[in-house]
């Protein structure tokens, strides 16, 4: 969900006390999901596509929060810490909201749709927990001790960097061929992919 480019940049900021980091560069909108199969089945009808459209709309609603780097140019430790705390709060809230919206969409109209949604929400909750752990570490950074602050922020950066391997949150859902087709056809999903 969070593009690897953005996570890498935030991690680098944390590891280097954010020296020279900022949000001037345009944020990536996400990673391409690759070519999708355009063939469907009787089950891959309007209901599945409408459901996929709801999920992609939910993702789109949080995308800007997840792709905007925090303003970390300051050489003042307290400013760096506060910017990182605010950013991590924003990300955590975005993942929480996304989980709620996907759950509210209900199970997709496919076999084992409920189980697929549970897996997806579980992945999102794990990501939120990682962010909350990083936030707790950043909150405990001692600004009066430069060496300790550097060490803590390095840990924060490493924790954020764990998210670099995070998969597209729709990956579990796309294991179902009907939903894979639905995600390829839904208008909101096409917008996310830049089509």
Describe this structure in words.
The protein is mostly helical and 195 residues long. It has one domain. Helix content is 61%, strand content 0%. The protein has seven helices and no strands. It has helices spanning 4-15, 46-66, 77-104, 113-139, 146-161, 177-185, 187-192. Helix 2 (46-66) runs antiparallel to helix 3 (77-104), helix 2 (46-66) packs across helix 6 (177-185) and helix 4 (113-139) runs antiparallel to helix 5. The radius of gyration is 18 Å and the shape is elongated. The two termini are 18 Å apart. The model is unreliable at 1-44 (pLDDT under 50).
Summarize this entry quickly.
By secondary structure, the chain is mostly helical. The chain has helices at residues 4-15, 46-66, 77-104, 113-139, 146-161, 177-185, 187-192.
């Amino acid at each position: 969900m969070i593009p690897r480019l953005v996570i890498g940049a935030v991690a680098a900021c944390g590891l280097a006390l954010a020296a020279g980091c900022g949000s001037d560069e345009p944020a990536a909108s996400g990673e391409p999901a690759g070519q999708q199969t355009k063939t469907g089945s009787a089950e891959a009808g309007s209901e599945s596509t409408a459901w996929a459209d709801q999920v992609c709309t939910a993702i789109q609603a949080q995308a800007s929060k997840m792709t905007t780097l925090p303003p970390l140019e300051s050489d003042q430790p307290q400013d760096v810490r506060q910017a990182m705390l605010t950013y991590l709060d924003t990300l955590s809230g975005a993942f929480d909201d996304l989980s709620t919206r996907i759950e509210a969409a209900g199970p997709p109209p496919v076999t084992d749709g409920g189980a697929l949604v549970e897996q997806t929400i579980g992945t999102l909750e794990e990501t939120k927990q990682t962010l909350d752990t990083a936030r707790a570490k950043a909150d405990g950074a001692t600004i009066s001790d430069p060496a300790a602050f550097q060490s803590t922020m390095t840990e924060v950066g490493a924790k954020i960097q764990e998210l670099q391997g995070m998969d597209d949150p729709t990956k579990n859902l796309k294991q179902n061929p009907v939903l894979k087709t639905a995600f390829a056809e839904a208008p909101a999903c096409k917008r996310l992919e830049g089509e």
